[in-house]
Amino acid sequence: MKHKILPFLLMGLFLLFACQPTPDHEFIVQKDTERLIETVVAKNNDENDSTKNAVEDSNPLVKTDKHYTYDYTSRNERLRIHADADVYMPLNGKVPMARVKGGYFTDDFAKKLFDLVYEGTTAYIRTNETRRLTKSELAEMIVYYQDLVDTGSTEDKMMDEEEAIEFINKMKEEYKTAPDEPEEIKPIVSDGTMQFRDITDDAPYARFNHIQYYELWTAGERGEISMYRPADNDPSIQDSLVYWRKPIDDTGIPFSYSESSEKGLIIDFSCPFDYVVCHPDDMNCAYGQKLSPYDAVLSCRAYLDDLGVMDAEPISYIDTYVLYSSDRSSVVDCYYFIDFVRTVNGTPVAYLSMIDALDESLTELPWEYETMRFIVNSEGVSEWTWTSPVRTEEILSNDAAILSFEQAAAVFETMSNVIYEAKTDKFDSPVYLDLSVSKAVLAPIRIREKNSQGRTGLYVPAWVFYGKKTGEYAEPITREMIEKTPTTVLLVINAVDGSIIDLRTGY
Amino acid sequence: MLAAITLCCMLLLRFVRDQRRADVLEQAQADYSAFTAQLRIGINIPEEPLVQRSYLIYLFKSTQNDREFTLRLGDDYLINNSGIAPEQFFDTSTEPGKTQHRFSTVNGNHFLIFGGPVYLFNEPYDMYLVRDMNTLNDALRTLTIRCALITGGILLLFLILTYLFAFFLTKPIEALTNGARGIASGQYDTRIAVKGKDEVGVLAKSFNAMAEAIQKSIDELTEQNLRKQAFINDLSHELKTPVTSLVLNSETLETRRMDETDRQRAVHRIYEQAKWIERLSQKLMQLVLLQDEIKLNLSPLRSLFVDAEETVRDSLDLTGITLTIQCDDIQIPMETDLMRSALVNLIENAIKASKQGDSIELIGTKQEIAIRDHGCGIPQSEIERITEPFYMVDRSRSKKLGGSGLGLALVQRIVEVHHFTLSIESEPGVGSSFFIRFSDVK
After folding, report:
1. Cα separation, A148 vs A145, whole angstroms
2. Following DSSP, what letter does each residue of A353-422 receive, concatenated?
3. What is the Cα–Cα distance from B201 to B207, expressed in whole angstroms?
4. Cα three-residue angle A89-A37-A505, rounded to 5 degrees
5. In this predicted model, what pLDDT tens digit does every residue of A170-226 receive, in sequence order?
6. Considering only CB atoms, which chain A residues are within 8 Å of B81?
7. What is this model's ipTM?
8. In percent, how much of chain B has pLDDT > 90?
9. Using a CB-CB distance cutoff of 8 angstroms, which residues of chain A are in contact with residue B138?
10. Are B336 and B297 in contact (CB under 8 A)?
């Protein structure tokens, strides 16, 4: 009996001593974003401001009496930094911090938009169905391909002879049941709901071979809606909405794509470019006979109000397209391109029109930044695009900013040198860079969780330095070059801890 | 076996784990060194703490693989993407430049923590690489499970094979055991089915032979016992009649007044029965006392015949039966008195079976002694039994002729101790022939 028990005892001992797991510990600290929140909350708790958690309806950005100037030229004289900038801050001087999550386009929202656009009319859902070829069409194709085979010219269709013959046989087979006359594809009426799509993209350059998403794609007499949201929060798919109303020139495509001069569309860039909130007193556009910028903004607001999007503010109108009469004697209409930004507790977030990719290979952002743009004319909203929307989940603090502008400026002066001077030596050929800072704004900006593939993050207060970033290879920058450069974001400084926020990575 | 396999598997897994960990540690060391080297590349160190911090964080985040690193100054974490406190695992008194490492589990997740103090911007920072080891652990766990399954499978197979082997090995032994038990319990006809020509098959064969021999011996012993019992029964039966006659006649003489004739008759009966008992006892004594080993001497056969004839002369004359003798001039090894007794018994039986005027032949050759009569013969079915003690074919006739039923038993016994054989040929109504065959004649 002992001999039988002994091996099992030995085995048990081996297992007991050999399979000891590594002792578990609980040495946990907060990750970067959580420490950021803790810092802000601690600061708030220290202050005795009874209004610090007040909910604000509107807290627009206003120009302060500060003015920032700075000049710097690098040792290799390839980098020039010049600041002559106004400083903007929220009206009440407080910038909130909030938790955010990607996504906005719910089924309810889709239905609201659908009802708004297609009320009283019929809209149709997209279908990939195509009509069958008729007998005559097939016969023509068969003759054509047979001729290619006979003349040895199948390579014109990127086929070898065998493939062409196989294709001909397939068409012959199809011919047997082909209709005599073209068949009408009966369109499917849309009910305004988002449909689940599961597709495989076999293209060699396809980023993702198998994607799932929800789609509302409709076309009717009034226009077209395409709205997408990912299934199961797949971070590889961005939420997006594009609506366009059929244009008056009847080209059948969105106005923004149309540059035809047949109807007298002439692009006019003379409207001033400004990043501040449109205010009725500032609307001095000379082309407002048909529609003033203010009214254009009101059209957009009415649209958003109807859809229940109350936390968006116009931040700028970028371009104005003027439709002249054929003899240019009168303005037929004008189209305003107006960008909106979302607000957090009434405070507009930082406007990010373009992430500059100067001398960097263009890479896709892990989480694109939210953009909302309207194209408005006298008939109302002509187009509307809204990409990568976010939802505010929780206001963590109403007053989260810690750094003063002076502190931020100190960081800017050091880090702009560090970041941009490195770019001038990056390639074999020298690169010249000119930074012209025109504006510094304290506003919330979105950062995302590091080491996370999902779309969750924070709105944190940041000092955003706007200006023009002009770059040129092998020759110094001229004034003309600078003037042609659009304004963009030069540097973003976290107003809580002074760290640089890289918009490409999102943190 | 089980313990040995388990030990081997565990040692192997341990080795694999340690080797993989060593590889991971080596890679971590290289990554840490590369990262630290890149961090030190920079321009003039900013003076203002906020700017310095911002610059350092930017450098950190701009360096490849920054996500695995944590950076701390005093109690302040500048960067920590892992969510754990690496410094808690190490001795904080370590000098800058010396790194430490540890494999740890935090909240169920496995990490390699590597690093230590490092000087950046003339300040003592703590920088650690926190590398996720869950993938490695999962791989090891998968390997462990596979090893366990394979080990379990092998052991199961081993157990099955062992069981089958033991079953097939012990089955014949069990059969042998059962067979032995059967024989011990008296089932002497138990046999083992012999399969195969291996040792077990040979053992089974031997067992069967043993069982056969035992059964035969038991049967013989049983038969002997039965014969003995029958002998005793027959003896008792044989004695009962004359003893009863003696008692009755004696009682009659003692208790009744008889005339002389009756008295004489009774005395005669007493005498006859006493003589009969005397003959019976003499024959019985001879039969019982006859030993297995007797001393044989070469003696002429003719002399034996002559002696036997002289002994039975009176009987022959009385019955008018003729005895003819034919004998070769040979000598055979024998005990003369016993052989004479056997011949006399056979001749007397022939006389009893014959009628007046019949002849009896006594023939002696190199191979045998034959006694032929032309008497009443013996039924074939009785031949086998007539050499049994007290067995008589026709009991009434034999008794009338003074037979005790022991004569042929005595002849059989004498023939056996001489290592000769006795055979009988007979036909009722024709006669009988008795043959004593020699095994070794000079």
Report:
1. 5
2. S----TTS-----SSPPPEEEEEEETTEEEEEEEES-EEEEEEEES------HHHHHHHHHHHHHHHHHH
3. 10
4. 75
5. 999 999 999 999 988 888 898 888 988 887 765 555 555 677 889 999 888 788 899
6. 31-32, 450-451
7. 0.75
8. 19
9. none
10. yes
CB contact under 8 A, B58 and A415: yes
* Alpha carbon of A412: minimum distance to chain B alpha carbons (Å): 9
Low-confidence ranges of chain B (pLDDT < 70): 40-44, 92-97, 194, 227, 230-231, 234, 237-238, 283, 287, 291-292, 395-404, 439-442
Nearest to A499 among B54, B82, B108 (CB): B54
Question: Quick check: B53 contacting A, CB < 8 Å?
Answer: yes
Kindly state whether B61 is in contact with chain A, defined as any CB-CB distance less than 8 angstroms: yes
**A337 — phi, psi (to 5°)?**
-100, 110
Amino acid at B86: P
CB within 8 Å of B68: residues ≥ 6 apart: B31, B81, B82, B129, B130, B131, B132
Q: What is the pTM of this model?
A: 0.62
Question: CA geometry: angle at B181 spanning B178 and B183, to 5°?
Answer: 110
Chain A contact set for B67 (CB, 8 A): 450-451
Residue of B389, B284, B292, B282 whose CA lies nearest to B335: B292
Pairing type for strands A380-387 and A79-90 reads unpaired
A426 touches chain B (CB under 8 A): no
Which chain B residues have a beta carbon less than 8 Å from that of A493?
A: 54
As given in the structure block, the two tokens for residue B385 are 């039994």
What number of C-beta contacts closer than 8 Å exist between A and B? 111
In this predicted model, what pLDDT tens digit does every residue of B67-91 receive, in sequence order?
888 998 888 888 887 888 887 887 7
Question: Quick check: A409 pLDDT over 60?
Answer: yes
**For residue B324, what are its two tokens?**
């003819």
Q: For residue B245, what are its two tokens?
A: 């006659």
